[in-house]
Structures
1.
Amino acid sequence: MARQPYLQINVNKHNAGRSLSMAQIVSAVKEQITLEHVAPGCRLPPVRVLAHQLGMSKTTIQLAYDELVAQGLLESTERVGLFVASDPKPVPVAPETLVVPPPCMALPATAPPAPARPPTEGMLNLGSVFIDPALLPHEKLSACFRSVVKQPQAYAAYHDQGFPPLRQAIAERLQARGIDASAEDIVITAGSQQALDLVCRVLKQKRIATENPAYSHGKALFEMNGLETLPLPLDPFCGIDPDVWERQLATSPALLYLTTNYHNPTGYSYTTSELQQILGWSQQYGFGILEDDWGADMLSFSEFRPCLRARGGSGVLYINAFTKKLLPSLRLGYIVGNPDVTPALVASKVASCLGLSTLMKAALFEFLDRGYYETHLKQLQAELDQRYENCLAALRDTMPEGVQWTTPGGGPSLWVELPAGVDRERLRDRLAQRHVTISLSDNAFFNQPHLNGFRLGYAMLSQDDMRRGIEILADTLRQEIARR
């Protein structure tokens, strides 16, 4: 039988480390038992433990305990120990010192979106933004991890800004795309989510503009950090409304956060003219820009579109991540700042987590340095192109009149828009009965959704499973349209 833990007793305030008399020990223990409302039956420290703690003789401690037993405050059980008596005589306590239960902790009004979970076995998941694990480079990543683990002494220290060789490799990749970046500008983060959190922490003016619908986990982060958000309506079929966007941005938020390639959840990529307008508004109204370019490496034919950082220079903060393209559990990304901003981002990171695993970052560096990443991207892009074409063909072959979908040209997902009046929640529930799941993304919208559709992810399922899922979707949609 395990012995009951003993009470921790604070006697320092009575003599600050100097030797105590027997009477002082009695007074200290009595005070803790009565004033702090110690429950009857609690065990006292053994004589040898308290003697060691105070640097005193066991005889003095034993005498103090004997006196407390004599006063009725303690009870002794042979070979078990000393315990607080079942009815210790209380010392009068002033009402203001009584323990008062704390109030319930205030929680955010809006709960964060639920984390992505693998679909139930046997279900066809049409809503995932993740890539089929069979397409990810498990063996090559494993080889890099094995190489790093063999020399742990080389990676014993962590780096607050991030593993220097990895930052240098990322900077060189960005420079090859025409992006103004140096290793000193880059902060390695736990995915793009931590990069967003660092920016939230360092913003002096807690006011940020972002797309509506927004990246749902980013939206939740802004709300939980108490940022005022200005939603800017985005329609994946029409793009941005320049008049509405300019009116909102003219109120001078501190920052505009947007995803320039393959926006989540709509799959939209900004046009060249829209990017130019955004840069112009930034200069005119004095707000900063935070660009999330997570989809840049997923463009078809290994092409890159000039991003806002490439067009606007180092004044544009830039986020990217390796998470979805290599391994979801890798959780490594980065933010590119400039000499004025990066020190604050590093300080924010140090305050929140000190640093990330150097072993993880060293393994990723090896993956880049060996040329594995470029080879992987070419193979991944080719496979995603085939899945994209298969998805478009299935939609065109099966969808009823009135249903629309976007053609992003790459990335992992597109947007399907339903005819007005089709109940999306009812459609989702009916599809679940037929073992197909969709994601409605309602938590990505500010207030009432202005789109009546959902994200369709084509990167997770095989081509055969994707076509089968779309056929079930089309059949169910016909029934729902007819029901109207």
Note: The two ends are 69 Å apart (CA to CA).
2.
Amino acid sequence: MPLNLKYDQGRIRKYHYFMLLSLIQKHKRISRSQLAHLTKMSNTSVGKIIKELMNDELVIEVGQTEGEVGRRATLLEINPNGSFIVGVELEKSGIQIAVVTLTGDVIKKRQLAFEPDKSAHQVLDELAAEILLLLNQVGNAVNEKIIAIGVSIPGLITWPEGRLLRVPQFHWENIDIKGRLEKKLDYVVYVDNHVRTVLLAESLYGSMKDFNDSVCIYIGSGVGGAAMLDGEMLRGHRNTLGEIGHMTLDPHGTMCDCGRLGCLQTFVCSSEIEKQVQKPIQEVFAASQREEDWAVRLVNRARTYLGLAISNVICIYNPQAVLLAGPMVQEFPALTEAIDNEVDQYVWRPLKHSFHLVYPEIGRDSGVIGASALVLNEFLRYSNDEI
């Protein structure tokens, strides 16, 4: 019995260890007494676990503030250099690899071209070699503190197995990305869809920090979605929850690349619009700015269907905030110009003022930071799975 009791106490202590670490990450700066108040733990228990976190170099003290009764309270925050994560973004436009701190800062990165003529296994083997080169550049002091490797990629991915079912852009099917990379590298690898990693990154480091119930609509060469409930990523039965790009909005509409008619992405994503008008997307928006009728109608149509999609998502998920992200949103602001008015026309009246429309804060490194956020999110919730 004493052995079992000790074992249980150890697991509960581990749970509290990661719970406090997660709260410090969420609040950015917080005192021991505030942590005790939030968790209902005793000040003594919090103090002991914070000492462990500081000994493990995961938490540091960062000055003091006035306490509730005039006493100075020492503030705690995540030590950005306490551990590191390797983030990888696989896109048709190129592959990014970076070493990222626990606070989402890139300290070193490498870029390489995505070569579509190479097989998936060739690309992954070269990626593994490039990761090793990057780790060699940052040195042993950083290598010893690497938690894991996160990979962000478009397409359908199984979770947590990390097997890629299909990426139309790459013409890859049924590839064991996690297994292949873990054989080449002495690290745990996490793999997920790029829309989820974008939402995770903004939730941990960016514009979605204050929203526990949230949705991301990502518009680029395709359309994707992701949703979080009470701070946890929703995945669905086959990790495909949020694939709103193939939600039918007009059964008599244009043929989608999936073979069906009138999917959302046929109205709003760059590849479908380019296919319909046989012009680069930059030209479409430039012509719209010049008020050429054909282009104005295309952009207005895209905005209308985006408004419809947002209103439908609000009815389905009832989020506090909707993150509008992706190249189409960030490179062509005309798409989301006055989007509030479009949403207002279609959203169900009881939900009209229940949400915020939000845009990303993280810049050009969002892919690798998102991949690192995938690892950090799993690291912080590790004990919840264990208990």
Note: The radius of gyration is 23 Å.
